[in-house]
Amino acid sequence: MFRRDHRVTGRTQPPDTINNASPSNQLSRREFLNQTAAGVAAATVAGAALGSSIGHAAESSANMIGIQIGSISFVDEGVEQVLELLQERGAVNTVFLTTFTYGRGLGGRQVPGQPFPDHGKQESDERIFHGGNYAAPHPEFYQKTPLKQTRAPDHGDLDIVAAVLPAASQRGTLCLFHPGVRAFWTGLAADLCTSYDIDGILFFNERNGPLLNALGASHAQSIASSRVTCFCEFHQKAASERGISFDRAREGYRKLDQFVQNALADKRPGDGYFVEFWRLLVEYPEIMLWDRLFDEGKHQVLAEVNAAVKSVRKDLQVGFHIEHVNSFNPIFRATRRYDDLAQKADFLKVVVYNNCGGERYAHFIQNVGSTVFRDVPKDELLRLNNHLLNYETEAALDALPTAGLSPDYVARETKRALAGVQGKCKIYPGIDIGIPTGRNSRKASAADTYATTFAALKAGAQGVMLSRKYSEMRLANLEAAGRAAREVSKQ
Ligand SMILES: [Zn+2]
């Protein structure tokens, strides 16, 4: 994260190299902090605190009002212009600049096929978007990883390794147990924190464990039970260190795949779908252990990134993005202890996207209702899940995509996170501003954005993260978030 007042007071860098850039030229490396290449569903985001030394401080919020933004917005609209607008209209005081991603969720202009917001270039970047490291990687930080040349070519040099990485990732070779992959993440974090005058990082990793992948138990994926997990040598080594049988795990996942395929083909087991699923877990506890192993690997990377950042400077802030599935899947929820995560981070960005939340939640119910809970009518399954997760007041299944989730949902999930971390770290709920949804699904209105931002801060959050990226937000919505932040501050 960069503090804007550092530019005024100056530190190790020429303070004002980035200002007055016209929309398309002359960005210093500071702007380009937001580009990094990788091949996994993760991104590091550097944010800039727009400090109180510039105007309108009295009207800004006492809370952390962050926004996720990619490099393209600064390139298209100009650095000073964008920073000014974010502060004036959105009451934004911290910018989380996407530094490393291959994903369209955080990088690039509006998602192709979706309407453009009322700012930025009204033209798809489909053909130029690539992704990667949007900062300049400094080689000394990448000596222990094979992933050395990851600079994103979108705005400059072509990078052949970056072209290969996404494909490698899809093949599952970027395993969290691969020492080179771990060294890459810690190297990237150390590089950003050492080479630039930032305030901290936000780390994204939305990869699911093998059990959820097998069941399609997220909103974001289809059911692909035959390609669920990595059985690479590093994984096998980690498993044997914990006394987990690799052969039994593989056999268990093979049977789970068979169970899922049978369910999708409507071949009902004699004892019913749920009993058969539970029996598999009882007979192959390795299914659970292998899933747990994945989570351990993922959380170990978080701990290592945190340690790498703190070894650069103790006051650098480290945050983790907690994905949406944590909010509506009880099986996933059980694997995420807030008090445990709180020990590895200074803040958690907890996803509570309410507009797209409706269709995502409906999608999740459809997925689990097609396999494990196939014997349960889906509207009843939704009601059961609502009870389990304290969602009682939300819309019925067929109305969920158009209704979205309520501001009260945002408040409830914020309170749950705050209670979970017990004050050990800060909670910045991720606010949905114009995240693309299906044609007939709910779109964010200014009133929604006002209500959800207000609900999150009123529930006690220490800040909010305006999400997913500025290049998909309408300005009226941004302004509504700003108004809510200022009003909560005044109370
Ligand atoms: Zn592996």
Provide a concise account of the structure shown.
This protein is α/β, with parallel strands linked by helices. The chain is built from 19 helices and ten strands.
Description:
With 491 residues, the chain is of the alpha/beta class. It has a single domain, classed as TIM Barrel. The protein is 43% helix and 10% strand. It has helices at 4-9, 71-77, 79-90, 160-170, 179-195, 210-215, 233-241, 246-264, 273-283, 285-312, 325-328, 330-333, 338-342, 355-368, 378-389, 400-403, 407-421, 446-458, 475-490; strands at 42-49, 64-69, 94-101, 132-133, 200-205, 317-322, 347-350, 426-427, 430-432, 463-467. Strands 1, 2, 3, 4, 5, 6, 7, 8, 9 and 10 form a ten-stranded mixed beta sheet that branches. The longest helix is centred in the middle third of the chain and has 28 residues, at 285-312. It starts with a helix and ends with a helix. Bound molecules: zinc ion (ZN). Zinc ion is lined by residues 175, 177, 230, 232, 234-235. Residues 175, 177, 230, 232, 234-235 line the site of zinc ion.
Shape: globular
Spatial gap, N to C terminus: 28 Å
The mean pLDDT is: 81
Classify the beta-strand content into a percent band: 5-15%
- DSSP E strands, number: 10
CATH topology: TIM Barrel
Second CATH tier, the architecture = Alpha-Beta Barrel
Percent range of helical residues? 40-55%
Features:
alpha/beta, globular, binds zinc ion, single chain, ten-stranded mixed sheet, 491 residues, 10 strands, TIM Barrel
